[in-house]
Amino acid sequence: MSTDDTEMLIALVYSLLQSNSRQSEEAVLDALVQHNGNVEAAAQYLNNRGKKRKRTNDLTSWLGNKPNKIVKRDDEDDMTLTRKSPSTSKPSSSSKKPAVNLMTVLRQAPPSPSKKPVSPPPLLLSNPAMVEQHSPCTMHLSVLPHELACRLFYTMVDASRGWGRNKWWLFDRLVESPHRTSFFARENGAEGSADAWQEAARFWYNGRMTEPPLEFPASMEEACVIVERLVNEELRKRQRFPLEWAGQPGLEYIWRANVAASNCYEGAKECVGPHSDQMTYLGPYCTIASLSLGARRIFSLREVIPKQEKETRSAQTFNIPLPHNSLTIMHASCQERFKHSIPPQSSMDLYRPSHPRVPNDTSNCRINITFRFYRPDFHPSSIPRCKCDVPTILRPDMKNRTDGKTDKYWWTCYAGAQNEGKGCDFWNIMDMEKEGRGPVVGETTV
Ligand SMILES: O=C(O)CCC(=O)C(=O)O
Ligand SMILES: [Fe+2]
């Protein structure tokens, strides 16, 4: 999740902006979209915009002076940055710097007054019908019995006191996610060994060494049974994509929530930046069921416009308020087409549980639990390793997608997230047939 293209690209653009160039995150995002995710071009565009300021730094020389050179191969997507082979040099002095909150990297300047809108204004999707109409998500209100929803909320709020903030390297900077997170594996939910789950959990924490994943608490298991039923009902109604998991003969359910990740956002400022979830164990066209408990926050969705369509349409942001005890299902194609985020807010309403632990209890916490189906054919043992001998991650080629049938996915190096930003240039296309994956819904043509 967190070490994603968008956050990384935005932070890189900021790092290339001249000190007197004041740009909002939205302006940086727009510049990236306009320049096909090309960091240098976006930064150059923003630096030159208005032409009022004199350039003091040459971008190429800036890049040339960095310890980790960013190189772009001719055959790769513009969104993609790779780094030179792993360096054998000693850790840089930057490794001694404390981790920086990611949002302080992203929010370095107030909005630019001269910014011209390039996208339609955000649209509020205020009810399930609108969510279904405008996005690849469905929204389900009051999904759990009220008592269970409150019990699970309290269980997770208490547990979250012990959770950490993900930390990872953005090139030469150690950044920290502005919310706390934890990863759970369902008892008997997994085909495979404890080692496999350990590796899957490690991936959730951006490649950091970790304890074995936690088991589902009893209230999470109760909720999971309800969520699983609802997701499978929805799946049966929907048109499916060729690379989706076809299910196994004799099994009632296609989609099984065998893992879950939980996030706690305490207060209005805690957030998660725009990203699409990595598909390493989920496979293409995955379905993710996201339960919201406690304080209401906005869930933001923004489409990534494919290159061939960017002349004819621009992306719109959709904002979905997520009330307590609601389930948002990110259906197949959501991770391929959209980035999602929980943006920071200037203020928020407190949540008052219907079954309070103490009278008149209130909370400023939002708990999110994403129930996920780690596919048997994307088992940790089947994940290719890069030249650094670290399991790769699977990313969709969002900007070159076309029809949902022949779209490409790439296995890419992930070592840099924990190795002071140093990774390798491993960049392999995923081939379902050659890699022996499936069964899938339709023909696998890559
Ligand atoms: O909190 C949410 O609703 C979103 C969380 C999320 O995007 C993630 O964990 O990948
Ligand atoms: Fe996510």
UniProtKB/TrEMBL annotation:
Organism for this UniProt entry: Guyanagaster necrorhizus
Listed Pfam families: 2OG-FeII_Oxy_2
TM ranges: none
Residue ranges, compositional bias (Pro residues): 110-123
Biased composition regions of type Low complexity, renumbered to the chain: 84-98
SUPFAM superfamilies: Clavaminate synthase-like
GO molecular function term, any single one: dioxygenase activity
InterPro entries: AlkB-like, AlkB-like_sf, ALKBH3, Oxoglu/Fe-dep_dioxygenase_dom
Residue stretches making up the Fe2OG dioxygenase domain: 256-375
Region of interest (Disordered), ranges: 49-100, 108-127
UniProt name for this protein: Fe2OG dioxygenase domain-containing protein
Superkingdom: Eukaryota
Gene3D superfamilies from the UniProt entry: Alpha-ketoglutarate-dependent dioxygenase AlkB-like
GO biological process, one term: DNA alkylation repair
